[in-house]
Amino acid sequence: MAELAIKAVPLICGKCSLRMTAHRQQVIYQCNGCGAVWELAQGRIAPRKVVHLSGNGNIGLPFWNAAFRITSQQGVIADTAGFMTLCGSVKPPDERAKLSPELYVPAFALPPQQAIRLGRNMTVRFPRFSESVNGDRSFEPVMLGEKDVPQLAELIALAALVEGRRNNQDFLASFGVELSGLRLVAIPFSREGNRLYQAEMNLEV
Amino acid sequence: MATIVFKCPQCGGPFEFAEGDCSSLCSFCGVTSLLVGDRGVHRLIIPERVDLKAARTSLRKLLASQEEGQAFAASFSFSGGSLLFLPFWRIRGMAMGWQWCEKETFKEEIDYDENGTRYTRRVKAPNERVFSLVAKPLSFSSPAGEYTPFGMIRVGLAGDVLQCEPMDYPVAAARGSVVDPLKGIAQARQEALAMTRDSIESEGVVRKESRIRISSEWLALLYYPVWNLHFTRGDRFYPVMVDAINGEVIKCRFPGEKQHGPFLPLAMLALLVLGWTTMPLAGVAATVLVFYLLKSRLGTWDASTIIKLLAGIPERGAGVQRG
Fold first, then answer.
1. Closest CA to A144 of A26, A42, A51
2. Less Cβ around it within 10 Å: N or C end of chain A?
3. Cβ neighbours of A144 in B, within 8 Å
């Protein structure tokens, strides 16, 4: 029989051989049995590393996290202090001023406008999480693939800037975001009614 | 949204993917499967539902439905046909990015004329600069070649009606000719993005700049079946395109039947002259014969039709044209 131009790959955990379930648009899959995380890479199931961050909460929400730098007509902005200036912050830079700013791109199911708003709110809070020692915890399904992160990251960075810059055509034309060290992280949130709350950042979804 | 019918890799049972979905659950064995395209492109085919005979019948019905009727349809002879699979690009996803534009704005000013009557006038205000984020669902199809000779511009997919199957080139090539795509993915993406940009409101826009890309892209090359039939009449050759899904004639062009020629009126005139110049009885017989010929030929006593016939004006019926 001739080989078909497309193929179906069964979603079975490569670690414990348990059947995994997935939402129709899900791109990263977690085994309910052993907690291993998988993704589709080059036509087969391959392991994916997820970093669980510490914090209060019982629901892990997945985010793409990366250090970034902004290129524009004003040059390259690669530190937190410079990014704060672009955002119009008058807060004096603290000890993190020289570090690279970090972007958080929501990877769970969220309408684009809300994802941009949430990503912006997290990014401008400059949170610093430490890694949790308790790995392999479950997290919400990941709907945003790694290849789509740069597009959303650019919009989140733009949303964080002061309006005056966003309305400047020359600035926009030269604007770009370069990501480095992209990783998938699960940040703990706690459920409060219909809302999800992150205590360390005082942030509601 | 079309559905893709597949065989479960675990149990071999049939199961369906909705267009744009990454995964689907087999209702027989309960295993979720992911659909993987060759280099990210899902190559799919819509199997033909209309066979050659039905496609020919479809055209004959169209011809017979014209004024000229069955005889006109029968005057064309079928001289062959082939099944073609025409490729179309299908793109689904989200168009995401930003748009900046400078818009003209106007304001209303109150003024008074020389009589002291108050009136308002519309004056130009400083241009407004607007930045907006763009996030729109995208569903786009575009021919992967130049199909205007086939009468096709784009293909729409309705899930309840159309079911796709994974493309199996040898099997498809055994049934018909698989047309190679001439247009690349990059061009199809550009067209999809241009469509998105055009759909954004642009009233009063003086300048604009945008950067929009496709996110969560689902890309497919979809082969759509059409019948390319050939009909002849006399020494002329007529190609016809018939949709191999619903049997509709997509494109054809046939001349209308020739109704009147100059021979008949001349013959009738000669008969009358001969009859009346020979003897009155022969004249009466010739007249009766002429009336009989007129009735049998025209089927009506409409004066304009008779005049046209007697004047020997050659007249063609309306041509059959589609596409």
1. A26
2. N
3. 216
Give chain B's domain count. Answer: 2
Determine the Cα–Cα distance for residues B94 and B193; give it in Å rounded to an integer: 10
Q: Read off the pTM.
A: 0.77
Other CB atoms within a 10 A radius of the CB of residue A173 amount to: 13
- Which of B7, B22, B213 minimises the CB distance to A26? B22
Counted across chains A and B, CB pairs separated by less than 8 A come out at 127
Domain that holds residue A136: 49-190
| B243: closest CA of chain A, how far (Å) | 24
Together in a domain, B244 and B276: no
Is the same domain home to B250 and B296?
no
* Tens place of pLDDT per residue across chain B (323 aa): 678 888 888 888 888 888 888 888 888 988 899 888 888 888 989 999 999 999 989 888 888 877 666 777 777 888 888 999 999 898 999 999 998 888 888 889 888 888 889 999 888 888 888 888 888 888 888 888 887 777 666 666 544 467 888 888 899 999 999 999 998 999 999 999 998 888 887 778 888 888 999 998 989 898 989 999 988 887 788 888 898 988 888 888 877 655 556 677 788 888 889 999 988 899 999 999 888 887 877 767 777 777 766 666 655 555 666 65
A-chain residues near B36 (CB < 8 A): 6-9, 40, 43
The span from the CA of A35 to the CA of A16, in Å, is 10
CB-closest option in A7, A26, A166 to B131 = A166
Backbone φ and ψ for A166, nearest 5 degrees, come out as -65, -25
Domain assignment of residue B174, given as a range: 3-91+137-185+221-255
